[in-house]
Please model this.
Amino acid sequence: MRAFISAEIPDEVGERLAEAARMLDFPGIKFVDKKNMHLTFAFLGDFDGARVDEVKDILDNISLKNFDVEIAGMSYLGNPGAICSGVVIGAEEMKAIAASVRTGLRSRRIAFDNKEFVPHVTVARIKYRIDESALKNALGSFESMSFGRFISDNIVFFRSILGDKEPAYEKLYERKERSI
Model:
């Protein structure tokens, strides 16, 4: 199975991101459905389902506290690649959680995509090379736009089920921090 560990974002933030992304009129851009937008801590790729309990244990043993998050701006990573919105408040807390998750995965010898962690929400994928200067220009209109602020209070272990059009995500486990 394909799997990843992430934090969810509120529906209203996903809707604002999806609405803004749809303004980008470029061929070859595939928009992420608002229900599939999230903040990924670790992508495990092909994962042995027999090890689900190990990941649950890792998530249960990391330090998790509620914290403010603000999602703002848009940029692109690579060409082809992805169009993303960044975390402008809460990035340090997200980096600490990602480091804890990744340390736990390494200690159990569970493979994951070990790219440098950059807190972001993917809003679209670029399927083939496009005019970079035109894309940068279009993304500039979102440079200082905030898509929402919220309290992050969960970490979720998801299974990704690839479909013809859009993947479906199934929660395998969720750890939610209670508000005081």
